[in-house]
Amino acid sequence: MELNCVLGRGPLALKNLKRVSHLEESRLLRPHFVKHLSLHHLLFLSLSDTGMRLLRSASEQSKPVLHSLKPRLNPALHLSPFLRPFSADPGPGPELSRQPNDDPIVAQALGLLQAPENSWNAAELSRLLFPSPPPTPAHFSKIALGLGASDKALKFLEFVQSNSPRDDAPVFVSHAFQSVVKLASREPSWEKALLELYKMSRQRDIRLTVNASTLLVSFFGRAGMVDEAVSAFEDVDRNARDGDLYELYVGMLFRHGRFEGALKVLDEILDPGSRFAASNIPGKIFFSALLRRLQGEGGSDADEIVGFFLKLIELGVFPDSVTLSKIIKNLCRNGEIGRAWDLVLRVIQSGGPVEAAPFNVILVELGKRLDFKRMNELMIKMKEINIPPDIVTLGILINHLCKSRRVDDALEVFERICTKQEEGLSCKPDTVIYNCLIDGLCKVGRLDEGAELLRKLTLQDGCKPNVITYNCLIDGYCKCCEIDKARQLFDQMSEEGVQPNVVTVNILVDGMCKFGRVGHAVEFLKDMKVRGLSPNVRTYTSLIKAFCNVNNFEKAMELFREMSRSGCSPDSVAYYTLISGLCNAGRMDDASSVATELKAAGFSLDVVCYNNLIGGFCRKNKLEEAYEMLKEMESSGVKPDTVTYNCLLSYFGKTGNLTTANKLMRQMIEKGLVPTVVSYGALIHGYCLKNNVEEAMKVFRDMNSVSKIPPNTVIYNILIECLCRNDKVDGACSLMDDMMEKGVRPNTTTFNALFKGLHQMNWLKKAFEMMDRMNEHACKPDYVTMEILTEWLSAVGEVGKLKNFVQGYEVSACTA
């Protein structure tokens, strides 16, 4: 009892056993040591090298003590050969390793064999083992196995071979050898031991049993000794080989690319005299091996595999539907869709059984590639060869049509199912098909049709809407800004007994937030919590983003803290959302604090998050912090992208540091990044702020000719405003013409800049033309437009022109 307390339980017992292993040789180790161990300690003793040494030592001092322990120890734990692989020990003593057997012959034989080999009572053993009638061969196998070690079992085999006076001695020897092989396979250096044993069996002409051959083939194949495995298989009488041996052997041949050897075995199995010829065993063996090879076991060669497949088909050996589908799936995954289709056709042409399942696999792969032409051809072929599509076939077709927004085609297939127009079709649409169609209709904005399908589904017998059905339709209403209808559908869902899930909650919360109903979203979430529906990180992220968008950062931060307190750990997206909102609002201290929390939580900033922080620091004129963030970004292995450089270019452009801005632009190009319209816009804006029109126009021309990046309205507005400010109104008007030629749409800001310049130059006629152009482009005048024109046209007596302009009439024509 004291020992039990000292040793402890579980892995601690093993650890403490090792610590006291030195007691093995000391006088302190006495029989009572073992006697007082509890059952779990005895189990660990039987499983450990140290424990085995202790038990053997104890057994030598007092065998009666071990006998007294037998009722406490489950014999299977310490006596069964099952435990051999757990110990590196060559084998425990006979008292521990012998498998208990109720058979008196086995028990007596094992008792006689406990003596050293040179002290065996040969006469007594012979009397026991070779009476008339003799024991069965299984007795010899059990006796050898019960000896627990291959060397002892081999001595027993030699005794049998030398002393058996009977004609059936070879059978006894074969079964004893079978156990020797089994014991050797569990011991260290089993490769060498098995090879030596096999060589010995051939030298002594010991016939292999099917079990011995199975073991040798398995272990030789595992060790890469293929020739030895082949020899061990061929040494077994053909009539004795069973299905397990054939399957193991063929799998080994395929794994090592021995296709010719596999063909030889196939001929043997299919021989009319074979008992396997008329069974499904050949197909099971060879197609399973082909499938493993195709999945990459031992490497794969599609040509060899398909060639062997065709050989099997020619010989009338066909795979079952499941195996054929798996083979087809692997070929399709490797891009061999054409070859997969040819294999299915060859099975059909050869008279093999084929169902819809293999066709479904090909349909899925074609659907992933949006290859509807070949999908249609496949469906036609199925009809031609009288293979009716099942509900899975039709579901695959409808699903991929809906995903590609070909909803009308999907509805046509659906109608054919409902009206049984498809010949041989006996299935009816299920909830999955309805869900696919409703989701497809909602994604293209056809919500009324989706609602009608929901009504039909509700009325259909044996097929009811589920939470996915309602989620599809609620999501559609939310995306179309019909929040009230989405909420009504949610209430209907509850009335119908369909329980909403967190996805339903997220759809409604996100929809309300996106369309300015943040308060409603918060109240809805409270109601859901009362009903037992807990929000997840996506729910909180939608609310945090919504509050950031309305500049309510206190509430956004409160929700972020609440998320952590509620046991819903923020993910990287939640952190990124909050950081982005804080950066856009210029709250850089808070953004930096959240970024620090993000890193402490084990996440890493991505390039978008770094760009938000760098851009935020630049907008707050904190260049030093921006550069620190850039340095951290590069040291963490995140490469700056175009957006990163654009943030810095915008800062230097606005501050007038154009030397640094140009240096950054060159550095950006050297790193393989392509400048965007924003990059050039930052430089142009910087030059225009300094009234350096010539350099600004040079960048503008480089942008058009060298980089081939078309300027946008913002860049034209910056240049036009700068030209007008510097009394270069002609150039501004030319830019306006260039803008029109290139299809860049002007806006109210463009015309306001021109009106200011024209007013300064008093170019009234040109101003009237611009007023007409403004109406043509449907650019509504703002207060700046009206202020410029009212002051100017009133002073020159052209108020009527202003009234016509406001009413959208032409003003450049002469008045009556």
Largest sheet: none
Distance N terminus to C terminus?
Answer: 123 Å
**CATH class (first level) name of the domain at 577-749:** Mainly Alpha
Q: Could you name the CATH topology of the domain at 577-749?
A: Serine Threonine Protein Phosphatase 5, Tetratricopeptide repeat
Mean pLDDT level: 81
CATH architecture of the domain at 577-749: Alpha Horseshoe
Keywords: Repeat
Family: Belongs to the PPR family. P subfamily.
PPR repeats: 320-354, 390-420, 430-465, 466-500, 501-535, 536-570, 571-605, 606-640, 641-675, 676-710, 712-746, 747-781
Protein name: Pentatricopeptide repeat-containing protein
Task: Provide a concise account of the structure shown.
With 816 residues, the protein is mainly alpha-helical.
Task: Provide an overview of this structure.
It is a single chain. With 816 residues, the chain is mostly helical. Among the domains are: 1-71, no CATH class; 318-387, no CATH class; 577-749, Serine Threonine Protein Phosphatase 5, Tetratricopeptide repeat (Alpha Horseshoe). Helices cover 69% and strands 0% of the residues. It is built from 48 helices and no strands. The protein is elongated and about 140 Å long. The model is unreliable at 1-100 (pLDDT under 50).
